[in-house]
Amino acid sequence: MYSAVSLLYLALVVFQGYCLQYFFGSFLERRWNSRWSDFALIIFYTLGLYGISGLVFNGETVSVDGDAAKKLILSLCFLFLAALIFYKPFRLITIFVVTAFLAVVEIGRYFAVILMDKVADGLITMWNRFVNKGIFTSDRALTITYSGSIMVVQIIQYFLIGLLVFVALRKIVRDFREKDYEISRTELLFLLTPTVVSLFISVLLRIIIITVEGNVPQMLYNSYPILIVVIPSILLLSLASILYSVKLFQDMIYTSRVKSERVVLQNQVSSMQEHMEEMERVYAEIRGMKHDMKNTIAIIGQLSTEENRELKEYLADLNNTFDRLEMRFKTGNTVADTLLNMKYHEAVRVIPDLKMETDMLMFPQTLKIHSYDIGIILGNAIDNAVEACRRVKEEDRNADTFIRLASVQKGKFLVLTIINSFDGKLFQKSQAEFPITVKADKENHGMGLRNMKNTVEKYHGTIDFKVEGGTFILSVMMKNEPG
Length: 483
Fold this sequence. Notes:
- It is a single chain.
- The protein has helices spanning 2-27, 35-57, 68-86, 92-132, 139-175, 185-208, 220-223, 227-303, 309-323, 334-350, 371-395, 448-457, and strands at residues 29-30, 87-88, 210-213, 216-219, 355-360, 402-410, 413-421, 462-468, 471-479.
- It is of the alpha+beta class.
- α3 (68-86) crosses α4 and α4 packs parallel to α6 (185-208).
- The longest helix is centred in the middle third of the chain and has 77 residues, at 227-303.
């Protein structure tokens, strides 16, 4: 029976090692992108846990000699060592990940042990009554019943520990959405408080849970039955505080980010409005000047003599020059036309041979999507496309760079597609929704796609992207209805 219990405990430790690599890998960057790395971590954790138990408690799972703090410190050091060996680099979030994992394991273990210990006591009491009533007449039958009952209780206990650990860690991973967010020391303290309190509770329980009466060790709740309800309740509340602190922290980050994005969005709208008003004024003046100059050129041409061919050729060239002052891009939407012309002239200063194609970009006359929202989407998309083309040029000066914009009406939905040259390097975390910016100033950059998503969602739309060879394809779908 002892060997069977040992195998069950080994299975539990291995499963905890699996949970460890899942939990750490969700937050930290692996040193080696290999399945063998995760497998090695599981083995490392299993051997380390057995080593700590043997070193501190001589293989016992429950301590009566006051070494609880020593085990806690050794376990923390061991988990930090595992994080340093298998993951890089060290970040403040690593401290939370290590303490949270240990706290969840300790809470799950104590909750299951206390709960199932009372179940085991109840079964033993029942079997003793059966013996007193003469139901069990054979020592062999009684031994098998005792052993079988303890084995079943042990299996349920280990299963309950594993289930609590896995469910709690999985919820933390799901609720902690901003895993790339660099937390500050104050934020770390906010997250650590419930985990550290839970660890101290586990240490306290290990110290006081066993009492000695008449040289016979007994569980404390046998003397104080109310503790069988109080202690598990405290453990569950400790676990709930860890889970709720993570959710609350993420809600705080989301609220702060929404406010920042709203400020950026408002600045973009304000800047775009100023640009469009200025561009419309400039183009209006140019059209007026062109009209006047064309009339002047026509009069001069009529007054010039037939013999003065050089003057006529000069006037013809001048007239062609004015023709080229027309808007380069015409999509049927004034905001889009102004924005495209402005972005193009800005881009060719950096990439002189950039090709921007908009022949397939047309907007319906019955467009109900707000012009400013169209401007936000196109503005952010073109900015990202120009940045991608710039990186392509940095790698190969002779590379062809292009940006192609197209649109199509599908029922009530307007679909915009932006295709641009791309170097094939997509930086995106496994849990992230969008690629991360490669610019140094990540606080003020990398919001383009999120701003686009927020704008698109006003029109019950979606945004999607994919990479095909040397091109990046961005697709935006919006319902052609007022947002």
